[in-house]
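User: Predict the structure for this protein chain, please.
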Amino acid sequence: TASPYLKPQQFVAEAQDVVVPFPALVPPGPPQPVPVPRPLAGRPMLAFFAGSRTAVVRDQLLGFNWPENCVVQNATLDYDEYFQGMSNARFCLCPDGRGGHANTLRLWESILMGCVPVVITAAFEPVAPFWLPWKDMAVFVSASSLRTGQELVDILQAKEQTNWYVKAEGHLRRAARLLDPTSDLLYALIVEDLKEKLAPRLRQSTDQKVLRLVAEEGDSERTQPAPAVRPYGGRPQAPVSLGEL
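Assistant: Here is the predicted structure, written as structure tokens:
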């Protein structure tokens, strides 16, 4: 999908079967800078979640009893209300979404608002794992292990008492600069992340082509080098040597 912030001439990529998530923290109208997050220490709310029942874990969370300093509601809020809730909370609950995974827009939005993401899922494939320190800026909770809302509250309150929590705020600020949808850094990050994730797949594809060529030629010595790989319209990579297989 085209974005009003994307400059296509800077980042050229061939089509690949890779899903690229995109943050929804873009209000209607002309592009606006992402608001500067409030310090965690000044936020009155422990945890926040507002969303619909699109996954089993969400039904579970919405059915728990929560203390007064947590807002967990089955509601669709407007733009200002939704992000005001995130900006008032120290932790933002990011459970599985409609697709059955926690890599949702809510996860990106919580980072942009400086709210520590609480990823509640059975499995998680992080966005840009080569560039973002997920274990140092997000809390991970197994969806199957939760029995009550108080269990999760205890986990979050214990996190607040650690040095990890202090450092997490700095990691979130740096991650927010990378994920800012009004900045070219986001699109550079997406392209670089795709390169890293697809590199093994490209290598495997090249290896298979080389092996197929060898099989077709039988035991005869190859006289022609393997074709160079040109991913993403960039410079060709060196041919794969048979000795590397």
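Residues 184-217 form the longest helix (34 residues).
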